Amino acid sequence: MADLRPVKAPFVTPGPSGVAVRTRLKQLTPDDEKVLRLVGGHLGSLASKDLKARCRDGLAHSGEVWAVRKRELTPLSSSRWAGSITKASHDQWALARRGQSAHLQNLEAGVRTIEDRLSLPVGQKGTKKAPGGYRSQREWHAKSRRLRVLQDRLASVRADREAGLVHIVRGGKRLARARHHLEAAQLTKSVWRGRWEAERWFCQADGESGKHYGNETIRISPDGEVSIRLPAPLAYLANAPHGRYVLACRVVFAHRGAEWADRVAADRAIAYRIHLDTGRDRWYVTASWQLPVTQTVPIEAALAHGVIGVDMNADHLASWRLDVHGNPTGSPRRFFYDLTGTAHHRDAQVRHALTRLLHWARACGVKAVAVEDLDFTTEKTREKHGRRKRFRRLISRMPTARLRARLASMADQTGIAVIAVDPAYTSRWGAQHWQKPLTSTTRTTTRHDAAAVAIGRRAQGHPIRRRTTPPPQHRSDAVGHRTVQAALGVSGREGTRPRIPGPRTRSVGAGRGTNAGNQNAQHRPGRSAEHESWNQDSLPLSP
């Protein structure tokens, strides 16, 4: 047990910090689409120039430099458009900076692993804590060459990070590379050009509390009227006062529409983004706002009605309900999903599985769901898992971060707390202590079902094993054998036990057994007087 790593205590995850809802802009006229394309293209060119300036500043960026960039963009758009563009550029630079840090840590881990394995003799076996040497001289030579490649990449990334240099592609690196492989991407040049331009458009505005309907740039009224404050060079396209353009359509937010309407009526800040889905040729508007920080419920209160342990896998969620004592009740439930296809399809599959899980939890009256605090960011490298390509592909397909974020957001609306537990040894110990006892002739318990029980028990603070070893006084007498045990010299100590009179099954009532009432059938010394044979004497005829 000394080699086991310590297990962290479970905790209640905080709720979501923001909300984003989307709806479609239907029945747009050709003039509306023309205006949206012109606005997106004009602001997109300004956003590209501002992002280039932000990347050029690097670590020398300051509040004064930010103000200068905003003043330069204001005559070409407006003060609020300029504020949204500069803020988006800063956020994108910060995101690229965080991604660069994660890439640097990944390269360092890979270099360290290869150096350790190259220092070991060829063919040396590894342990549970560390891998051994490479299996052949050929593999050793190939890994030594890869080490040089990773070291060069590491040096380049370190130099960029020290200089504050990041690499960003507006529109996406994947789409940019698809231009050179149009046949493999199943795209034509015109289709790719339209998608590339749409991805580089900019038509989003931050909200401001106290302003009319919460946003002065992109405004949506309570009845669904959408109006846009046009940039200064495009003011001639306005069809409403104060340089605004009103779209001919009306929008309705089906999801969280009541919350959105309350914020609009109270003039609270709401950010909007208008974008074009080139694959469907549809326009959408996304509304987003921040949520106040809510105090998480104590873990004791969340576990007052039991818990549902959930084990996430590559194709399903295995869950089992546990009572307040940590005992699994009922039967396990599995919620399947398909993680193949596009990102939107995978996201929809995860949402549908979580919806079924939360509906089941609410039907059971449970107020808490326990999940593993998984993070495979540092676990996907081939330097760590070597030839285990199937395992690397498996953990790469598992959307741990997306599932955790989706579950926290959806559970907050249903009043169910999410408890995160340490994932150490849950699958191994669950299969060891729970898989066989929970398997019966009518139910097959999988390893994932047993892991769900282990996760739920860890969230409740119980040990994963079914029971602890009783003290010696409960296993036998404190001193010697028990007095009721037969000694070794007693004859018949290993014989059959006498049959207990009465019925042996529930289908036979009391006194209705085969030998019920026949006391002579019992193994007893002597016979009862009431069962002895006797004859009554004849009556006397004379005194």
Q: What is the ordering of alpha helices and beta strands?
A: EEHHHHHHEEEEHEEHEEEHEHHHEHHH
Radius of gyration, CA atoms, in whole angstroms:
36 Å
**Secondary structure: helix percent:** 25-40%
Unreliable runs = 513-517, 526-534
The class by helix and strand makeup works out as alpha+beta
Widest sheet: strand order?
Answer: 1-13-12-9-10-11
In DSSP terms (H or I, runs of 4 or more residues), the helix count works out at 15
| Strand composition percent | 5-15%
Biggest sheet features = 6 strands, mixed
Shape assignment = globular
Arithmetic mean of pLDDT: 84
The span between the termini is 98 Å
Q: Please provide the count of β strands.
A: 13
Structure characterization notes:
The protein is of the alpha+beta class and 543 residues long. It has helices spanning 30-57, 63-73, 79-118, 137-163, 173-178, 189-200, 257-265, 299-302, 343-364, 382-385, 389-397, 400-414, 426-435, 447-460, 472-475; strands spanning 11-12, 18-24, 204-205, 218-220, 225-229, 244-250, 271-277, 282-290, 307-312, 316-322, 328-336, 368-372, 417-421. The protein has a 6-stranded mixed beta sheet with strand order 1-13-12-9-10-11. The longest helix has 40 residues, at 79-118. The protein is globular. The termini are far apart.
